Amino acid sequence: MFSRPNARAALPDTGPNRRDPANLLRLLHYVKPYVGWLSLGIFSTLISAGLSLVFPKLFGNLIDASFLKRAGSGVADTGPLDRIVLLLLGVFAVVALFTALQSFLISRVGVRVVADLRRAVFSHLLTLSPRFFATRRTGELTSRLTSDVSTVQTVVSSALAQLLSQVVTLIGGVTLMVLTSFQLSLFTLAVIPLIIGTAVVIGLQIRKAAREVQDKVAAANASAEEAISGVRVVQSFTAEDVERERYGDGVEQSFAASLRRIKLTSLMAGIMTFLAFGSLAGVLWYGGRQVLVGAITPGKLVSFLFYALQVGINVGGLTGIFSQVQEALGASSRLFELLDTKSELPVSAAPQPLNRVVGHVQFEEVSFRYGDEGELPTLSGLNLDVSPGQTVALVGPSGAGKSTLVSLLPRFYDVTGGTLKVDGVDVRQADLEALRRQVGLVPQETLLFSGSVAENILYGRPSASQAEVQSAARAANAEEFILRLPQGYATAVGERGVKLSGGQRQRVAIARAILKNPRILILDEATSALDNESEALVQDALEKLMVGRTTFVIAHRLSTIRSADLIVVMDAGCIVQRGTHAELLQQGGLYKDLYDLQFRAERREQGPLAVQGI
Question: Which residues cross the membrane (predicted)?
Fold first, then answer.
């Protein structure tokens, strides 16, 4: 069985950074705005944990009080017993109150921090260049925003509360154990180093297994995302079984990794249980002998047992938290890897504003390569001066560099040689947001978002009024079909606009560009995938959109660019010809060859009637 090649690499393992505990400390930056809530939670935790240390002492007193009798009367004295029970109930109520309070406060801080972290990662991703996303799978990035952030949330919220509570209880419990019975304390505490050592050794293995699980789940999610987003291609090639097997393999790999982690956590749980109950049995044996010889009272033995149980439970709890921290360590490191990824589009220290842009574009000895220095350049020594309002058509064979050239205008990539200027300002020195506001793009593959028609048009300018949206739709020849939709402008278009036809999606995209009102317009084969009727409507809308704007047109049908002010012919990343349609036909060369080849192909498609001139 074959499998689809993996064109996009997984997120890199950066080695030591993946294991750097300091990354967890970086979360404190996100906690800082909520330090007030956290302080209240910590205070509640201290009260709850401190009062829980009163239980063993009161229970011991309760046991001893149960055997007291009034002196010389032989009648049981229930007064102390009653008072102790009432005191216990009061302590229980206060502990319950503060336990609920600390759980709410610290969990609230945790989910708020995680929400901020998720927003920060997503916001940072939006600032990275297309080159970054070309080497990463979308499904893997979304996995970082979901599973990895959720793993961190466990530590930031519940684990933090447990850690504070257990540390306080552990320290207090050990102190009170020693004060209750020094000999029993030595006997009990001898097993603690063994418990801690086991937790550290197995915990490191759990951490490694947890990181592997995260990797496998992210890979499976990436596979599913690709298959779902391209479901039409999958179904058209009847490749459902291929995708099922590919995703199934990913799921099985994540299952195998999860199983390894489960085995380790189960092993730790079993060892800890044995050590805890074994030490308890030893305490009961030794403490019972102490009671028999009168060294301690039964009540003190019960108090000591409760303290020992508290210490054991908290040591076990700390090992569980240690395991959670190990899992979160890998997840937080991966998140910070994304946050630490720098954009390949450096921001100028003093960006130049672009006010009242007229659309004068200059390419001066521009070169560009996608890869490393060793790769051949996609563009080489390119010079082009485009006047404001001029329409420039870019033609040439596939791979000539046409789309690469126009992608430099909104600064999706930076030139690797030469200079690109807009109104005399080097785009690398210009304010990036201001630059992109002045560049409109209508691509061949239109992407609409899964909202309503109106929301997709408003993407061009969110502050626009309803009247402006409708005006843009009319100018794009889109309002007629929009009003025929079930809910008009409020009709949902589905994911990627799947509920609309290709021509309808393209007209919505044109309306979006009209509403944006850019001074520089890029039309990247905007009509190539349309039928004749849709192409005529879209072409008419595009001609309205181009008026008064500097326009770059990439067209597969040369007949649609005859009226362009300038036709630039590209081949192998260089400009080989330039001129008007008539001038280029007269010159001969590549443009005439392309035109003649396309003309003959169109004549063949029209059949014998066209040959006869009918």
Answer: 34-63, 84-105, 155-178, 184-206, 264-285, 305-325
